[in-house]
Amino acid sequence: MARYHIETYGCTSNRGESRQIERALREGGHYRVDRPEEADVAILNTCTVVEKTERNMLNRARELDEETPADLVVTGCMAIAQGEAFERAGVDADVLHWDEVPEHVLNGECPTVTPDTEPILDGVVGILPIARGCMSDCSYCITKHATGKIDSPPVEENVRKARALVHAGAREIRITGQDTGVYGWDAGERTLHVLLERICEEVDGEFRIRVGMANPKGVHGIREELAQVFADHDELYNFLHIPVQSGSDNVLAEMRRQHTVDEYLEVVETFDEYLEEWTLSTDFIVGFPTETETDHQQSLELLEETRPEKINITRFSKRPGTDAAAMKGLGGQTKKDRSSEMTDRKMAVVGAAYESMVGTEREVLIVEDGTGDSMVGYDHAYRKIAIPGAEREGVELGEFVTCRVTGHNTVYALAELV
Ligand code: SF4
User: Ligand 1, closest atom to CA 110?
Assistant: First the structure.
């Protein structure tokens, strides 16, 4: 769980990007602090409208870098257009696109939201933490220290919370946990598929469910049952987030991930068998201390082989008190180079997936305001789609609309209403 401080400059569009970042961080269990000196990470969302603004951005970045112990992330228009200016000014910051900020802050770890937190309703999105803890002991993880072993409230309790969220106005339920795949393990058997089926069948209303992070090991033993529930119920987005973290079994063993590359592949194959169109989401940690060049190449090959449409890449960083923190690390430049190489592959794979959607018609659930008069939603496979002009056309949050995909922006599609 990290405390973040965020500062946003510039137009309403930039403020919208900050809202998206904050929503993702809250979903991951992080919380906001007003004072940068109390934060674990400071985020500067920049603007670059005129030269004076640029100077102000650089000055503010220097202040945050010098005056606070927090890690600094610079994002926003100036980061994208003139990212190198921060390095030239001697600012020690990670310069990132808006979309990359949440994963960077989450640092490859699982979310820390727990069922003690009441379900959160954010617009038409309801966040439902179904359990606390996991059954793993990843060598790089600090979250585990806070959350411990899996503790799953009964299925009935989570069904009741899901129903309450839908009655309160949620059209999309985001099911979260450190590892949703091991839900129920403490009560004797993994029952994520049972919970999902019961929510779909027992909660009245029109809604969609997005299932959050589930480690490949937990899902592997219930992969057929789970894929069957996805195939049977339209309420479930055909979307599975299974962080593989590496394409090398040697690195996975050092990470103590408990799954192998083959087990991850078997989960993917099963979902391919049961579902015609679905989105695979995964995470890679790049530059783990024992990662060799061969291991890194294996990760790139796995990315190419399984072609996930959503990929979170985290450059390894040491977390205090973890076993991985005691390992001799790789050089910063090696981590940076491997991360860039993987990011290039990711953009090619993700861009090709969105390109293949151009010209198709999709039913989309609108869940967010976009920039200007656009609105943003997700299709049945949880592909992000922005529809310019939708607000002007009277489309509202929580509405299902039909649209035709006209283009893409590599990480999301653009569409027009039909
Ligand atoms: S699964 Fe691994 S990374 Fe996630 S909370 Fe458990 S120990 Fe940490």
Answer: 4
